[in-house]
Amino acid sequence: MVHGGAGDLARLADPAQAPPYLHALRAVLDLGRGLLQAGGHALDVVEACTRVLEDDPLFNAGRGAVLDREGGVALDAGIMDGRDLRLGAVAAVRRIANPVSLARKVLESGSHVFLVAGGALRFARELGMAEVAEHELVTPERQAEHRRVCAGAEPAEQGTVGCVARDRHGHLAAATSTGGLVCKGPGRVGDSPVAGAGVWADDETCAVSCSGRGEDLLRVGLARTAAHALMHGGMDPGVAVQVAVDHLRRRVAGAGGLILIDRGGRCACAYTTPRMLRGWIEHGGEVVCRI
Amino acid sequence: MVHGGAGDLARLADPAQAPPYLHALRAVLDLGRGLLQAGGHALDVVEACTRVLEDDPLFNAGRGAVLDREGGVALDAGIMDGRDLRLGAVAAVRRIANPVSLARKVLESGSHVFLVAGGALRFARELGMAEVAEHELVTPERQAEHRRVCAGAEPAEQGTVGCVARDRHGHLAAATSTGGLVCKGPGRVGDSPVAGAGVWADDETCAVSCSGRGEDLLRVGLARTAAHALMHGGMDPGVAVQVAVDHLRRRVAGAGGLILIDRGGRCACAYTTPRMLRGWIEHGGEVVCRI
């Protein structure tokens, strides 16, 4: 299951604008299906699928990420392995085109699990990971949006990306990647890299990826709320995501949503925002995409 | 309820070494009692108590924090208000003597909730918060420890500090502050500033502050595990903390512990480490401190 963000997504209310987004999700779901059918591990699959969405300038992650207050690109990503709760996260990192893969390297490092800002970039350099110039991640659309929001316009769109998967061994994994908020202040971290807030995977319950106003999602710990609702709500994924977004609305009047796959491979999604772009393949069936 | 860290704390096995630590906790508990009796809000009380522990060079937070790989001091802190789940967190921030108060300013900013590294310092500067030279936070004991650990010795001690409180209005709050791991890499973030991992407060359940090997605590989301165990385990605080550390041990063979105060003002503590330094006042009774 993948998502391309929860938010106003006003442009996607126009049927003429939606096809490229839906096409992108379908392509990623086809990629994920192929990898899983070939015996791929859930952790590898969520990383591979999230990379494709990071590379796609339509989404607010990697190339095409929103610009911060100073017009730069600072990225957050988290990835989690449901087998053993291994975790890797990076936040406020610059010059890295695929932060989800840097987060994966942190996960594999076996030492730290969460690296930020210049420290995350230094870790990437120590690994010899390719760096890009910050402007290579910037699109004209994001520059125009940055000008509008800095001039006082309401920041409308979220395009955080995320992926959750269950592999043939029954293992779960989740990944979330984002550029965060338009015109965010320096060093701002949202929910995406934070386990329990924007990303969570535990083979005993489910894998979750979230999107929305990161501050709201951090305050309620949205992903973990859903995982607990699943555990204590009869293991019904549809109920779990609904409980989670009801909690988000009730406690912090929060804007956001989540995708969830449970240990049985059942998919669910809920959101408090006008729209959430998501797609899924349940039990090897048809590709379904919704806005 | 306050703590001064979970860990090996080998020096505290020597009865001759323990009195200054116990005295420090007692003084902080007396301070907290006075503030609460005067009608203080839980959020103010946990900030005030945590500041005192940050200022005390005995503990790994603020002055007396452990040194990172390069011999510098990078601090993490988080604070949370159980009334409305408002949250403030800073991580990998330098030159700030009381990161819990910077986290409190983030909480009050109403915009972002989590700021890291240079961005957190810039936010402090925009507020006109006092800065200190990094060496002012460094003690000779931490320099000696840094030399030993860089030379290959096992890093033995944790001295993270934290505080949870319930005020006369029944509101809960929690704060956690730390220098993290000795010889940690640049940009490393542990559990302390992460809501759901090292800090959590929700009037509907409890307030929690944790300490231990931050990576382990992030992977399981220790604070939130306890809050959920409380909600689904008959609201018994002693059971909740035990369930949480059992989960920590079972899933990640983790080293750590937590203090918890529930909405009824009952206190509990559990840990998987040899020792945890903590003290509490339950229902306005006697001060109790334990190692």
Overview features:
homodimer, 291 residues, alpha+beta, 4-stranded antiparallel sheet
Write a concise synopsis of the structure shown.
2 copies of one chain form a homodimer. Helix content of chain A is 35%, strand content 24%.
Notes on the structure:
The structure is a homodimer of 291-residue chains. Chain A is α+β, with helices and mostly antiparallel strands and 291 residues long. Helices cover 35% and strands 24% of the residues of chain A. The first copy, chain A, has 8 helices and 12 strands. Chain A has an 8-stranded mixed β-sheet with strand order 4-3-2-6-5-1-11-12. In chain A, α3 links the parallel β3 and β4. The longest helix of chain A has 20 residues, at 18-37. The two termini of chain A are 14 Å apart. The mean pLDDT of chain A is 95.
Strand content of chain A: 15-25%
| Count of DSSP strands of chain A | 12
In quaternary terms, these chains amount to homodimer
Mean pLDDT across residues of chain A: 95
Q: What shape does the CA trace of chain A take?
A: globular
How would you characterize the largest beta sheet of chain A?
8 strands, mixed
> What is the string of helix and strand elements of chain A?
EHHEEHEHHEEEEHHHEEEE
Q: Helix/strand-derived class of chain A?
A: alpha+beta
Strand order of the largest sheet of chain A: 4-3-2-6-5-1-11-12
* Poorly predicted sequence stretches spanning 5 or more consecutive residues of chain A: none
**Estimated radius of gyration of chain A:** 17 Å
The share of residues in helices of chain A is 25-40%
In DSSP terms (H or I, runs of 4 or more residues), the helix count of chain A works out at 8
Largest interface: A-B, 39 and 40 residues
Alpha-carbon distance between the termini of chain A?
Answer: 14 Å
